[in-house]
Design brief:
This is PGFS reductase. This protein has a single domain, classed as Alpha-Beta Barrel (TIM Barrel). The protein has 6 helices and 4 strands; from the N terminus they run E-H-E-H-E-H-H-E-H-H. A 4-stranded parallel sheet has the order 1-2-3-4. It starts with 6 loop residues before the first strand and ends in a 16-residue tail after the last helix.
Length: about 140
């Protein structure tokens, strides 16, 4: 009777379905890796359809996105950093985004993503980069 809500991490649709069968409570949040190379849209849609907030971590793909030519090109086009492009893209896709940094200047930079909008054509470029290379969860994991 003390817990009012739960959050889960790296749950796939199958895990969420199993949880629904085993528990009376639906998680409020599912935290999953999300960046241009790892964009699990089916899972995002599933969560949205069930009022589960999809929270994306690792929006810079562990730094790999910062050196990708297409992301660098977009950063130059918008006068932003590659990190800001990735974070803004994630936010524009409706994802609660949690970038990580230990450096104060990077944390401040990561917050400066609300003064511009990425054009839909450019969002589609980033959306099309998905290749699943950073699957951080174990597909054999069971609830």
């Amino acid at each position: 009777g003390v817990c009012r809500s739960i959050g889960v991490s790296n749950f796939l649709i199958s895990h969420l379905e199993q949880l629904k069968e085993d528990c009376e409570i639906t998680p409020h949040v599912n935290q999953v890796e999300y960046h241009p190379f790892q964009r699990p849209q089916e899972l995002v849609d599933y969560c949205r359809s069930r009022d589960i907030v999809f929270e994306g971590y690792c929006p810079l793909a562990k730094g790999e996105a910062l050196t990708h030519p297409s992301i660098i090109q977009l950063a130059k086009k918008y006068g932003k950093t590659p990190a800001q492009i990735c974070i803004r893209w994630s936010i524009q896709n409706g994802i609660v985004t949690i970038p990580k940094s230990t450096k104060a200047e990077r944390i401040q930079e990561n917050c400066k993503v609300f003064d511009f909008t990425i054009a839909e054509d450019d969002v589609e470029i980033l959306n099309g980069m998905h290749d699943g290379r950073h699957v951080s969860w174990d597909p054999s994991f069971t609830v």
